[in-house]
Design a protein that fits this description.
Order of helices and strands: EEEEEEEE
Strand order of the largest sheet: 3-4-5-6
Largest sheet: 4 strands, antiparallel
Radius of gyration: 15 Å
Strand content: over 45%
Oligomer: single chain
Distance between the termini: 22 Å
Shape: globular
Number of strands: 8
Length: 102
C-alpha cells in the first residue's frame, strides 16, 4: 500500500511511504477521524487487519522523527475480513475499530 501527499495548489502527488506487511490482497482501507492523527486500517485476504500510524515510533531507526509504522494487528484465522471502519471514542484519545468478516 502506498500513502501519497497531494499538493492542494498544484494537484501534484508524492509518495510518502510504502506500507508492507500483508501476505495477501488488501480488500479495504479506512482512515481514522483526523482528530485522532494519521491512522489507517487495512483489511486483507490473509486474515489480518493492520492498523498503521504516523508518528514517533520507539522502534524507528531515526528515533524521534515522524514515520509510518505498524501500530496494531488483528488476526482472524478462520475468515477473511472484508471491511474495516474506524471511529473516535468520545472523550478518549483512542479509536474503535469495527471488523466485518465474510
Amino acid at each position: 500500500m502506498k500513502v501519497f501527499d497531494v499538493d492542494p495548489k498544484t494537484d501534484v502527488t508524492r509518495c510518502v511511504v510504502t506500507l508492507r506487511g500483508h501476505q495477501g490482497p488488501v480488500w479495504k482501507l479506512s482512515w481514522a477521524d483526523p482528530s485522532m492523527g494519521n491512522i489507517l486500517a487495512s483489511a486483507s485476504a490473509d486474515g489480518t487487519v493492520k492498523v498503521w500510524r504516523e508518528g514517533k515510533s520507539m522502534f524507528d531507526l531515526n528515533y524521534g522523527e515522524e514515520c509510518w509504522y505498524l501500530w496494531k494487528e488483528f488476526v482472524e484465522e478462520s475468515k477473511s475480513p472484508d471491511a474495516t471502519s474506524t471511529a473516535p471514542i468520545a472523550g478518549e484519545c483512542s479509536s474503535a475499530i469495527k471488523i466485518n468478516s465474510k
